[in-house]
Amino acid sequence: MKFDIYIFDLDGTLLNLGNIGVYADQILQKTLSRLNAPVIPGENERRQFWGSENNYIDILNNWGVSKAQDFWEHYDKVDFKQRKILFKQKKIALFDGVEEVLEKLYTHNDGKNIAIVTNTSDYVVEFFLKKFNIASFFQEVFSMGLKNDQQFAKPSPRGILSILEKFQYDQDIHRALMIGDSYSDIKAAKKANISACLVKRNIMGHDPAIIKRDFQPDYIIERLDEILEL
Ligand SMILES: [Mg+2]
What is the pLDDT of residues 145-183, one digit of tens each? Predict the structure, then answer.
């Protein structure tokens, strides 16, 4: 365990929501209906939206969505409502081994620093960390909210950089690892100049073309507990 700082993505990495790509797309469609979009765009157009990074307002405007700037506020409300329904139905859970891995890092003699950097909204994150009783493992959480605008969402390195600063990270002394299930996690980590670990979740969502893209993970794992061997 050569790393001093472990930064986790939440959805699809620690939290199992089923196929995260399908889930997010359903929430997108529900949010568009709520915002009275004249038509729900086709699958290809919706896929472009997810890859649009900071151009999402242009895309929403093209789709005829009024008040596009309020989109994420509505998205988060729809998302939270749906997650609470899934939670009641026991369709949201931690992936196997999550508590054990966090426990091992948390109790490690070298005093590992543990954090979350997620594109999910702060109140949603807080709710589920408490529900699954894992909040106390994390010294820091970077999520979307009043302080953190959507433009700071991954693949922006902003969240990771702010966590590193809080841990007083010195690149000459410390080693930091970002663990995530998607390309945006890998890109954010490499832009922040730290190591990146892709966890392959077989039910989902990670882009099979990831190995051909600009930013490459330093490690690819199948099970979360493999990070204890890195
Ligand atoms: Mg994820």
Answer: 877 788 899 999 999 999 999 999 999 999 999 999 988
- The string of pLDDT tens digits covering residues 197-227 is 999 986 444 455 555 678 899 999 999 999 9
Distance in Å, CA 228 to ligand 1 centroid? 20
CATH architecture type of domain 5-17+92-229 = 3-Layer(aba) Sandwich (3.40)
Single pTM value for the model: 0.91
Q: 87 CA to middle of ligand 1, Å?
A: 18
Alpha-carbon span 218 to 195, nearest angstrom: 6
Question: What stretch of H or E contains 188?
Answer: helix 183-191
Domain ranges in the chain are: 5-17+92-229, 20-88
Q: Which residues surround ligand 1, an ion (CB under 5 A)?
A: 9, 11-12, 181-182
Beta bridge partners of 62: none
Q: Distance, CA 125 to ligand 1 centroid (Å)?
A: 13
